[in-house]
Each structure stands twice: as C-alpha cells, then as structure tokens.
C-alpha cells in the first residue's frame, strides 16, 4: 500500500496533504499540529468520526489496542506492520484502571496519559484514544474498522471481538511477532539489573552473610506520610543511614513495605518508584540486596501484605537467608507480627510487642551489635533509650 501522509485536527477531521504545496499542507505547517506527537489523545467519539470520514473518502481504516506500558522495539515494529494494512491507523490504549484489572495492582508502570502520548508520537499512528473496557467490543462497535489488527501472541479464535468485525464485513489480521520482547520481561530484567547494581558481595562470599535485616519503610526508615507519592517529601529518620552503614557489614539489607495506596488508587507504581529512588539517593552508601513491596489493598487476599510473612519468606527463598538469625525492624504491630511469623527476631521502633524495643536507630544498631549472633543468646526485652 502506498505511503500516505495525513494530519489530524482536534475535531477528528483529516486532510490529504500528499500534494506538495497544497493549501492544506501549508495550513498544517503554519499551525504546527501534525498528528505524530504534536496533539493530545482524542476521544473514542472523535476516533469514530475520523474513521467514518476516512471511509467516505475510500480509505481503509485499521484499529488495534494495547497497554503499551514500557514501549519497546517490538511495539514499534508491530505498529509499523499494522500501518501496512490500512490508510488510517487508530490505536486504543487501556486506562490505568483497566490495566490494574487485567494485569494486577502493580501495573501499569506509566500512567495512561504518558502511555498514550508516547504511542501518539509514533509515525504510523494517526489517532490515539483511551478506553476502560477489558475487551474491544465497544471499540469495534463504535469505530467499525475495516481491519482489526492484533499481535501474534493471539489466535483469531481467542479474540472475542473478531466475530463482531466479521459481522459487518471487516477483517481480523494477526500480525506475527518480529521480536521476542515483552514489557514483563523488560521489567524483570530491570529489577535484576537494579539488584546487581547494589550488590557488592565478593565472589565466593555467598554464604558469608546469610542473615538479614528486614526493614519497614514508612515510619521506620523514612518519616511517615499517608500515601506518600511525592519524592521531595521523603525524609530519612534520624540515625537510620548511619546505623545501616554500620550494620550492613554483617547483615544483608532487605526492604519490606506495604503500599496499599497503589491498590486503592491513591498513587501509581511509577510514583512509588520515584519515592524509592529519592530514598536511595538520600541513603547514599547504604546497599539493599532487594526491595519488596505489597501493592494490594486490604480487600485483596494476598500473601505478601504484612502482618503476613510473604515478603520475608520470598526474600529468604530468593536470597538464601537464614530467618532464625535475621531481624525484622518496624514501627507497627503488623511489622512485628510478620517478623515473628517468618521466624525472625523482631525490634519494635518505638513500640512494644517484639523481642526488643528501640527508641531510635542508634539504639537499633547498639542492640543488634550487643546481641550478636542469635545462637545461644537470650531474648532481649530491654527498652534501649539514649535519652
């Protein structure tokens, strides 16, 4: 199919600007408003208007959809391949709420505005809109595309919208993968790279530190702010950095934090990562072996949310940690309960109920140093207070 160039206006109307020097082309240049990257996403209604107008001019309308969370080469190749089958390519991008329903509370990484704007910037794409449904039936009904395009990880029989497309004479086309890439695989690789960047264990020293300090975040490591999502508000608690710099010589450091604000929609996973990056910057020199977070709400029956010990047990399995010689440090009964359930010793930072109570991070460091190896040691219930 010949390469055609169009420009979109906010109304959804499109003008053929293939003829050099045409008045339409001059108007577009003066307004500096080409479709590719210069406009916000349109509404689904505007996309339907654009599709109808294109059909009136004898053009082939194509439609596809996706999450497009971490845009990669596979996405770009897919969209270019889609454009080979149509004149007008319209793309539906899942809203944040629909992504959470489909992929879980930890996704998307990028919010819907960011994802749609990046897709709109790609040359093959002529229009982008957001949709909240978990399938494309409503999109197909409103747009009535001539071709419905999906990636090669689907079979036509799996697509609930394919019969709807066929009912009015449209065609479903499966685009074969050109790259063995996925957003999930990239996120996993990024997590591994992040972990590798923080590890400083020397070769052959794998078993030198098989014990760990499991550390809560909000109220323990940083000052507590409800549903914290603004990096500039991160404040490290007094003495925490100095204590951890000392303790990490003998213990591996593992963060375990409940972040139900993600699950109930107060902030996104991307905002959580921004706060965490700022925390790590402020803790310069402190090395965490791994960071675990539970994004689920209270209504979700997960195994990771403290007071359940899921995050600690997972860390023990993944990092080869001896829980009996490890500590859980936190400022809530949920932290203490999780530590006890995992078989760790526990320190309550300003609260009772654990194996020991500490009034400050300086006390935490002193307590652990004084107790030393847990083998043969007695339970310490002393309230360490420097005041």
Description:
The protein has 387 residues and is of the alpha/beta class. The chain folds into two domains: 6-181, Rossmann fold, CATH 3.40.50; 199-384, Rossmann fold, CATH 3.40.50. Helices cover 36% and strands 17% of the residues. It has 15 helices and 14 strands. It has helices at 23-31, 35-38, 44-56, 73-83, 96-103, 112-120, 137-143, 162-167, 183-198, 240-247, 260-263, 269-282, 310-319, 333-342, 361-371, and strands at 6-8, 14-16, 61-66, 88-94, 127-131, 147-151, 171-175, 212-215, 252-258, 290-294, 327-330, 345-349, 356-358, 383-384. The strands form three sheets. A seven-stranded parallel beta sheet has the order 10-9-8-11-12-13-14, sandwiched between helices. α15 (361-371) links the parallel β13 (356-358) and β14. The radius of gyration is 27 Å and the shape is elongated. The N and C termini lie far apart (79 Å). Mean pLDDT is 81; it is low at 1-39, 195-207 and 373-387.
Count of DSSP-assigned helices: 15
Helix content: 25-40%
Count of extended strands? 14
User: What's the gyration radius in Å?
Assistant: 27 Å
Widest sheet, order of strands: 10-9-8-11-12-13-14
CATH homologous group name of the largest domain: HAD superfamily/HAD-like
Structural class: alpha/beta
**Distance, first to last CA:** 79 Å
How many strands, which pairing sense, and closed or not: the largest β-sheet?
Answer: 7 strands, parallel
Put the structure in a nutshell.
The chain has 15 helices and 14 strands. The protein is an alpha/beta fold and 387 residues long.
């Amino acid at each position: 199919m010949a390469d055609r160039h169009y420009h979109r206006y906010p109304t959804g109307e499109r003008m053929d600007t293939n003829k050099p020097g045409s008045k339409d082309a001059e108007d577009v240049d003066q307004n500096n408003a080409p479709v590719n990257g210069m406009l916000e996403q349109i509404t689904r209604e505007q996309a339907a208007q654009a599709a109808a107008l294109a059909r009136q001019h004898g053009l082939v309308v194509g439609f596809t959809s996706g999450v497009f969370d971490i845009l990669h080469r596979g996405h770009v190749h897919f969209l270019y391949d889609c454009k080979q089958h149509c004149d007008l390519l319209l793309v539906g991008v899942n809203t944040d709420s629909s992504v959470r329903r489909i992929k879980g509370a930890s996704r998307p990484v990028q919010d819907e505005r960011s994802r749609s704007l990046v897709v709109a910037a790609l040359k093959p794409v002529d229009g982008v809109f957001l949709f909240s449904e978990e399938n494309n039936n409503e999109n197909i009904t409103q747009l009535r595309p001539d071709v419905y395009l999906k990636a090669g990880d689907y079979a036509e029989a799996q697509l609930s919208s394919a019969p709807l497309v066929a009912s009015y004479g449209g065609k479903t086309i499966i685009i074969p993968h050109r790259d063995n890439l996925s957003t999930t695989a990239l996120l996993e690789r990024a997590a591994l790279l992040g972990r590798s960047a923080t590890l400083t264990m020397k070769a052959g020293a794998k078993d030198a530190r098989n014990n760990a300090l499991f550390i809560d975040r909000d109220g323990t490591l940083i000052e507590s702010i409800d549903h914290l999502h603004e990096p500039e508000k991160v404040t490290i608690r007094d003495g925490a950095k100095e204590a951890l710099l000392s303790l990490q010589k003998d213990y591996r450091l593992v963060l375990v934090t409940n972040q139900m604000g993600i699950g109930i929609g107060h902030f996104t996973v991307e905002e959580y990562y921004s706060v965490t990056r700022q925390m790590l910057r402020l803790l310069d020199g402190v090395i965490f072996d791994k960071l675990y977070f539970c994004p689920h709400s209270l209504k979700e029956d997960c195994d990771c949310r403290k007071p359940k010990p899921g995050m600690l047990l997972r860390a023990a399995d993944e990092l080869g940690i001896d829980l009996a010689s490890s500590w859980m440090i936190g400022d809530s009964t949920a932290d203490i309960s999780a530590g006890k359930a995992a078989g760790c010793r526990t320190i309550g930072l300003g609260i009772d109920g654990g194996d020991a109570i500490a009034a400050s991070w300086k006390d935490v460091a002193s307590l652990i140093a004084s107790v030393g190896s847990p083998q043969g040691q007695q339970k310490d219930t002393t309230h360490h207070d420097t005041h």
